[in-house]
DNA sequence: TTATACCCGACAAATTTAGTCGTAAATAAT
DNA sequence: ATTATTTACGACTAAATTTGTCGGGTATAA
């Protein structure tokens, strides 16, 4: 409960790694996977997602790899989590209205308050804070 | 990711329900399960855990049930979550040192910071806030 | 004695997460 | 051109976790 997934973990590791690179220097999925002992294929998926959202940029072919193209200060953690995993909420009823008990439910309001607190906390935290 | 479990959800529903009772009035697992349309057996387990930790008290036998015996103001959400699910941390390495990559890992410090932020947020939030 | 209600561990089903594989496309180097 | 390297991506399997069920127990009020 309240755990982040491996994919998010791997994405953070990769971003932190990329941030350490000079200028236009690239890092490959293989390089990162080996350095941190994580499964390359899974890491690759995380990197591809980040590339699709233009957080990083992919360069194909030999001597290709990835590099940061967005200032980590400009991406807050709510956005980052949602890039990696879709809508963030501690309960599905926060965004999915398919709950059968909505009328009987006696904890909707408090649940929403917890949600909002978590979101607002992550809103104020940027990728730069995390990958400093 | 970052989701609370059903058990926690059911515990919150039950606590909120118990809080609405007068004085020494009891509520049974069956009554709660039916009213909110949730599986009785699973709810029962949540209630039993709360009883073991003396958040509520169980009365056996016919006309038995549960009642609150601890002021919800005195239980913060960190404690509540840990009663229900054990140690709270967004990654296992927060409390479990069995990680192979500890030395290579480049995100330990930031992960710990996120953890601490979440914990401190839940430290300041009590069951009373949630079941008002 | 009986019916009701909590207690609890073991099990099974369902869902989610983690990891793998095969194939394709781009491209630098030879 | 061919080859080697690297990203892209969907399909698949495996593992782990969560969710739900079952059976047998204890306590106790009526």
Structure description:
Two copies of one chain form a homodimer. With 132 residues, chain A is mainly alpha-helical. The first copy, chain A, is 48% helix and 6% strand. Chain A contains six helices and two strands. Chain A has helices spanning 6-19, 29-36, 40-52, 77-85, 108-123, 127-130, and strands at residues 56-59, 65-68. In chain A, strands 1-2 form a two-stranded antiparallel sheet. In chain A, strand 1 and strand 2 (65-68) form a beta hairpin. In chain A, helix 1 (6-19) packs across helix 3 and helix 2 (29-36) packs across helix 3. Chain A is elongated. Chain A starts with 5 loop residues before the first helix and ends with a helix. The interface between A and B is large, with 41 and 41 residues. The structure holds a DNA duplex (30 and 30 nucleotides).
- Please mark out the parts of chain A with pLDDT under 50 across 5 or more consecutive residues, or reply none: none
Beta-sheet strand percentage of chain A? 5-15%
From the spread of the alpha carbons, the general shape of chain A counts as elongated
Average pLDDT value of chain A?
Answer: 92
